[in-house]
Each structure stands twice: as structure tokens, then as C-alpha cells.
Amino acid sequence: MNNRYSRHISLKEVGDQGQDRLLKKTIFILGLGGIGSPAALYLASSGIGRLVLNDFDLIDESNLSRQILFNESDLGNLKVDVVKKKLNAINSNLKVDTIDEKLSVNEYSKIISKTSFVLDCSDNFETRLSISQAAYESNIPIIHGSAIRFEGQLVVFLNNGKGPCYSCVYSDNEWLENCQGNGVLSTVPGLIGLMMTSELLKIIFGIKSQLVNILLLWDLKDNTWKKLNIKPNPNCKICSRC
Ligand SMILES: [Zn+2]
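Above: query sequence and zinc ion SMILES. Below: predicted holo C-alpha cells.
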């Protein structure tokens, strides 16, 4: 293990203890598309202990431009099955559980309450709200990431018993669009997935995240990065009622 993760262990912020901490963590990843693929890939190679992967899609030709874990021979297969196989080829010590169906908020809560962190790499508003509510009610931290056209964004919520949460940010009418009808440049979700994993690794290693309750907005065309402070919304249906 020392040789495999020597570049991590050499970092004074990580060391043996940090790497060992990573091995003991379980991460729930929702969505194995353009964001979830690179996120899962780097978590596996970084030495995470266990992943719980949730996606019910089959691999389609239109996925190949950006969902980098898949190749032509995978077409028509379940994403979770292919990802599990590929991640274990990279890291045979990694434990991978797969869920190939859409879950209710209660079902999500039950599963993620046994995990350390959630990466929301889903591609639709309804699913985001469900996983956000489940993570908030289970007190499990979550990173949401999304990408469309030339734009990407991510935000971290620690869910330690108080808001804000994802529902504070978006009203019911926003982010109904997804990349299917609007398009996305192949590298944009890739970068967002890597940033989500990077932020997660920082938090596990005890390095303060600068994106807690802060929405980071990236516009590739202008190459601008903006940060928005997210405050608890007193009318939020999720975090204001607790
Ligand atoms: Zn809220």
C-alpha cells in the first residue's frame, strides 16, 4: 500500500493516517454519466475503501463522447455493472456495491445513512431534490455537481443539522433542463467530476473546503469562476422545517 499511494503519503497533509482514513470511507455516487464517471474513476485510483454506485441507465452511443469509463464494446450494458468491473480492474481492493434502480427519498436515506459522503452526479432536478432531502435528513454531507453547454457548477453542504441545503438554492422551476436537449461540451462534466472528487478528498484529509455553502459557477467560454454564498432559505421545504 505504501508504494501504491506513496505520492499521497508524501504529502504532509495526508501521510499514512490520511490514506488510511480514505480506506475506511464509503462514498455513495448517484449517476455514472459525464460527471460520475471521472469522479468514480479517481476515487477508485486514490484508494477509497468502498463505493455504492446508483444508476439505472444502459450505455448508449451518445454517452461515449464524455463518459470516459465506457467504450464501444460496452454499449447496451448496465452502467453500474460495467463501472464496477472497470474500477476493480484499477483497484482490486476496492469494494463496490451497485444499485440499478431509481429509489425513493426513504430508500435513499436508508442507504446513505450508512455511508460517509454523497456525490450527486445526477442529471435531473427531481433526482437532485430527492437525494438532497435524503442526505439532509440523514446528516450525511453531499457535493452536488452539474454541467450544461459550456457551464458547470458545484457546491458542498455538510448537512450537520442545519441549512442551507440544495432546496434553499433552487426554486421548483429551475434546472429542469439537462444536457440531453441542450448539449454539453465533453470536457465540462469531466472537470466538474474531478473537482467534486478533489473537494471530497480534501475534506477526508482534513483540509478545509472553500466550497461549503458556496456555489462555484464556471463558464468555460469566458473562463470565469464565480462564487455565490448560499444562505439558509427560511421558506425551504427541507431544512427550515427541522
Ligand atoms: Zn434548505
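Residues 34 and 67 are 4 Å apart (CA to CA).
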